[in-house]
Amino acid sequence: MSKKTIANTNIINRLKEIQKIGHLTDKETRWLLTPKRVSYAELRIDRKKFPAWRVLFNDVLGPGKGGIRFHPEVTENEVMSLGFWMMVKNSLAELPFGGAKGGVRFNPKSASPQILEDVSRKYIDAFYKVLGQDIDIPAPDVYTNSQIMAWMLDEYEEKTNHHEPGMITDKPIELQGCVLRDEATARGGFIIITEIIRDLKLNKKGLKIAIQGFGNVGLNLSKILQEDGFKIVAVSDSQGGTYNKTGLNINQVVEAKTKFGSVANFPDGEKISNQELLELPINILILAALENQVTESNANNIQASHIIEMANGPTNYQADKILFDRKIMVVPDVLANAGGVIGSYFEWSQNKTGNILDKGYLKELLRQKMTNSWKKVRFIQKEHKRKVNLRTAAYLIAIERILAAGKLRGQLR
Ligand code: NAD
After folding, report:
1. Helix or strand or coil: residue 140?
2. CA distance 341 to 105
3. Which domains does the chain have, with CATH numbers?
């Protein structure tokens, strides 16, 4: 076990609360906050050095699983926090995975394809000994994609001199990727939204939705929602957003983003900032960009009655409290965006068994898994007489399973 512990106050405060409600010991709480292995390297490319990390946070439930992020602000603490959330998410979804995450601190937006390939291959050169289908399995995260996974797989197989497609997921289909993976995260979020509507008997036609982030998750979710008849009134990316209270045509927004580089320049909408998007008069706010978007400074201004956390960690601890007091339902990241890792699990199991599964079958499996998690979380929340939010309920379920596995192994006594 690493000597480092997580320094993210959001996570520490949340675990202190879980400790009280779930009657955890100090030792159990400390163990849950301590990563198993933190690997660090400097990737040297063109006489520049890029700091890079791979964190295996906890692997009592199975090999580590979690994406790799390329971003100019990646830090060790961020990668550890993301690894912690993966541990909770994988446990809640009842997957045979522990939690892990990786990151490289550099700006991929200004990098040439050659530099992107060099960074991807150097990442594997640095960390291939701590990766593998039964050790720790990466996938994409912010600003990484299936091409990057393809380069990483190729480098890994060159280094280890054998084929092992299950060492990484979200690969292109030709390299044994999974037919559902591109849309799995978004589809999982969509399943949760339809469950909310069913449970709370909401009128779908009257709902207004805003989505922050228009990448893999936000864009795919906006398409699925629109195809199903939902009205999306605002979307945004890193350069700003667009708002049309009568509803946006998502296909046209995609065209505008391709043409002008940002959704903010969509001609059929009003230009708004990301901050303004969060505070619009809407029903459902979908957060699909980065961490810490809803904090104590704007939580009181949120007008949506439901927040769906498709990004990891978009609401901080203080905001969570404010939103709970204001009776705004927050579907936590570890539940809302679990479709992604469930899709990765389908791919990994296909790779390990050699089976190739049909898209319709996988969609149904995803629906069952997401619905099952939703029902479990709602049940535990009801058991606590709704005095805890959905996040606390989700953590209680996930942590119970991790602690049980740690004790069965004798790693935690
Ligand atoms: P992506 O790189 O494809 O897209 C990120 C989007 O966010 C882009 O549109 C970008 O312009 C936008 N963005 C960046 N900074 C922003 C800001 N300050 N305000 C508004 N928008 C901003 O990434 P992604 O794969 O869509 O991931 C988005 C989030 O979802 C991340 O938190 C990621 O960890 C999480 N997530 C992704 C997956 C997956 O399968 N891709 C799975 C689970 C969780």
Report:
1. strand
2. 23
3. 9-171 (3.40.50.10860), 182-331 (3.40.50.720)
Which tokens is 54 given? 């791979």
Taking the CB of residue 353, how many other CB atoms lie within 10 A of it?
Answer: 10
Predicted local distance difference test score (pLDDT) of residue 324: 96
Give the chain's radius of gyration (CA, Å). Answer: 20
Pocket of ligand 1 (CB under 6 A): 140-143, 185, 212-218, 236-238, 274, 288-290, 310-312, 337, 340
Token digits for 163? Answer: 């084929």
Amino acid at 25: T
- Residue from 101, 171, 231, 257 carrying the catalytic annotation: 101
Which atom of ligand 1 lies at the shortest distance from residue 333's CA?
Answer: 44
**Which pTM was predicted?**
0.95
Q: What backbone phi and psi angles, to 5 degrees, belong to 234?
A: -150, 145
Q: Please answer whether residues 241 and 315 qualify as being in contact, where contact means their C-beta atoms are separated by less than 8 angstroms.
A: no
The confidence score (pLDDT) of residue 4 equals 84
Question: How is residue 140 written in tokens?
Answer: 């994409």
Catalytic, 101? Answer: yes
Which residue, by CA, sits nearest to atom 37 of ligand 1?
141
Q: Which helix (H) or strand (E) element contains residue 211?
A: strand 208-212
48 CB-near residues (< 8 Å, 6+ apart) = none
For 37, list phi and psi in degrees, rounded to 5. -150, 130
Q: d(Cα 411, Cα 91) in Å, to the nearest integer?
A: 17
pLDDT of 44: 96
The residue ranges of the chain whose pLDDT is under 50 are none
Tens digits of per-residue pLDDT, 37-79? 999 999 999 889 999 999 999 999 999 999 999 999 999 999 9
Among the listed residues 110, 102, 114, the one whose alpha carbon sits nearest the alpha carbon of residue 57:
102
One-letter amino acid of 165: P
